Amino acid sequence: MNLKAFCKVICSLLIINETKTCAQNVNIGGLKDMLKAKPVVFSGGASANSAFYTGDGTGNREPHTYYFQGNVSANLFGQVNLPFSFSFTNAGSGYAYPTPPNRLDRHPTYKWITGHIGHVSMNFSPYTLNGHQFTGAGVDVSPDGPWKASVMVGRLQKAVAYDRKNLKILPAYERMGYGSKIGYEKPGYKVEVSTFYANDDHTSLGYKPDSLAVFPQQNLAVCYTAQFRPMKGFDLNMEYGNSALTLDDRDTTTARSNGNYLKSLMGTNGGTIVYRAVKVNMNYTFLKSTLGLGYERVDPSYRTLGAYYFNNDFENVTFNAAQAFLKDKISMSANVGVQYDNLDGKKSATTHRMVGSIHVNYALAEKAQLGGSYSNFQMYMNMQSPFQKINQSLPFQNLDTLNFVQISQNANLNMMLATRKNETQNQQLSVNLSFQDASDQQAGIVRKGSGSQFYSLSTVYNMLYLKKSLFKFYSTIIL
Fold first, then answer.
1. Single pTM value for the model
2. What is the pLDDT of residue 410?
């Protein structure tokens, strides 16, 4: 599937029935303001960090590593913004990576058009394109009116040959990606459709790294999003994702027809798998209270080539609530739910997880805030023996030594105090205390060596000069 075919896919999925034609208007007053404005105004900042490393077992690690990054924005005649950012480091300079650590990107903006050029990333949907860095170009169009659109095209990863010096980095085929998102929003509802297509160039490597389980892949993913407000205070959000992934694009076997439209659009083979994901959230707000219910299900092995990592093979149901007290000085929110995996029953273990958390924030004064949170995650894992379906054990035989309960508790307390705040400078002190307790419980007993506790105390004092933005000062202490 090439770029021309991908454009046909977009046209078949996204049909716009509304067109508008208007005459060109010239704002004379706006032209006068543009001529009075400064031709170029620069703003931004930069930071530099350096680290020295020595000791046993350094391996191939660089003894001196530097990081230089920043962002600069240029405004032309008060009309056009030309921001760009950069990041350079010598970390891993002796190796080849599918995604280079050094980057330079530009994001020009004019009215309701924003461009993305260079080493950039864009977010369309958690189930299609989600923060994957690419080398290319993209654009976001948000005119006055209900229609919004985004488009991207670029190289997701470059070809990387096998490196005997660094076996941790696998070889990779060159991968190109194309994506689009279009949305329509009106008071009371919003709908979006995002599409993403990526394919590997199997000729980009001079050899076939099949023995390392690296194959040229192809992927077409679509996500439908809808948000509704059928009545005041009630919000309903829905997402449905579909991803067709070809594990080896060179496979010549015929794909089995299962009625899925992605296979017919992409052109698949016997190694193509279709995944599905669905997420629904309902929230009702009344007075100063919020109650919500959520459901999410992601197929086992669900993934797209537009994201680095996916949580998959799970189904969860959550309930959340939020409330404000004392004239909004205190806000509280809580979330509780249950999650389990092994949706297709192919794993030898099924995990059930109970999740609960609470967050509290208290505005002590105009310049002081106090916040805290606590969460408890409990996971139960039952290791299924293949003989359980054949042999029925007596109560006193084969004691339950394969059932584990993992308990993790997290608590956090933070305070922020603004010591100075005026037109020329801001100064504030932040203190954060966190605690984490994790343990494995077997047969109701937490055995020695199966638990850990972690305490962290950090303090940050920030001084910001607003007119000159001279420097920031940070001090951190970890216990």
1. 0.69
2. 87
